């Protein structure tokens, strides 16, 4: 799109002599072709460009004529960025918003029409969408009538506050998405009562105080992702999956990962598996005095848990009475938007800068870098929304526990991160029996004999539900797949008590290879999938017995109260 079409000089003023900007046009075909030259093997067919140009001119002409005939702006636009009355009451702003939306649609269709290999096309579409989202007139004070009106109404106070918030964020090194001062881990988030009963350099093991007189004899271990802190599963009592498990009579243990610092920069995948999930399983079984336990892995926590159980299977051990995988990738063939960030060149660069091959030695992947990457997967919701609210309107973001957790980032050791990138996202070797050696054992996920509950979220952009479903074809034990509504976090954290959303369960337990075939035959049930999962987990918990009066054991004495020290360490 020509720079003039989206340039700041297009901001019209609402006067009797209202003037529209120059009539919008698309760049010529030669300019588009030149812009695509850096992308090898990619082209925009001439007929596609001609069709788009014709459509654009037709819609732009209609928009132009409609604006010329109006003495005032039209109805509010459906796009929430322009939903304020300020946009509909200002004729120039209303036209500019409409023109932006037309440009955005056209650029998106142009990116969609590009021909080339799938990954390059995905990268182009992602880059175009980032540019389009950044170019929204709502993001700029000179083009945003809502922010301008607020500045006039407050005598400039909103702008002064916006500058203060901007400077505070510059000093903090990140964009504020919530009021961090409103939360403290252990006081009003991560408050479920329990104790730390084991710790090493890699994790602390938390055991939670029973809330029932009796508990299932088989303990329950949760392995959260190591790229986030565990308390997404324990934000508040009313939406805590941890508390829900405890309330349903499960003796619940949770791993709390250490937030790596420079002393942990050389950690490898093998070291993490051996010293974290394998050790946690050993300790939980020892404390509970049982031969088996139920297990749950969330996101990459599920990936590392399944890897650990495959290592144990190779050693002739089957400690898992059940395995729950929440939004977990085991087959990395279809990883959604994250795939665009991974290729041989990018992985090699990481290996040479922070991996074991780095000339300067292993390093850390900073949590702030990961957080920024994930935010720009949904830039309108997690970036520009706060740029406008915080800096243009001077409105401090409200307190929101989920976004507080989201901003409480964690570091990753370079060698571990590089191994994970190469062997899963890039080469997709975890699903291949015997291809990978972890902790000295050939990994075969099919050797895990435990029954498996596999959950995917229908609108998940981190782990597409079809990719979560692919685990049904790898694991050989009895399997149940459930599809929940919403996204990666909101789909999982859907408390049963609120009875929101819905979930889908397959017909007759059949799990065809094609996930769409499964979905077509699935039945939708209103409410949370938690109840379905709880009934399933209860069937694998064993007999009920008197709840323990204290956490830990003689050998594994209480170290400190939950949530422990490790979760409180900032990145």
Automatic annotation (TrEMBL):
Taxonomically, which superkingdom?
A: Bacteria
UniProt entry keywords in alphabetical sequence: Acyltransferase, Cytoplasm, Transferase
Q: Which GO terms describe its biological process?
A: poly-hydroxybutyrate biosynthetic process
Q: Which SUPFAM superfamilies match?
A: alpha/beta-Hydrolases
- List cellular component terms (GO): cytoplasm
UniProt keyword Cytoplasm present: yes
Q: What is its main location?
A: cytoplasm
User: The Poly-beta-hydroxybutyrate polymerase N-terminal domain covers which part of the protein?
Assistant: 78-245
Where is it located?
A: Cytoplasm
InterPro entries named among the record's database cross-references:
AB_hydrolase_fold (IPR029058), PHA/PHB_synthase (IPR051321), PHA_synth_I (IPR010963), PhaC_N (IPR010941)
Q: Which residues cross the membrane?
A: none
Claim: Cytoplasm is one of the keywords in the record = yes
GO terms (molecular function) for this protein are:
acyltransferase activity
Q: Which PANTHER family match?
A: POLY(3-HYDROXYALKANOATE) POLYMERASE SUBUNIT PHAC, POLY-3-HYDROXYBUTYRATE SYNTHASE
Tell me the NCBIfam families matching this sequence: PHA_synth_I
Q: How is this protein named in the record? A: Class I poly(R)-hydroxyalkanoic acid synthase
Which species? Inhella proteolytica
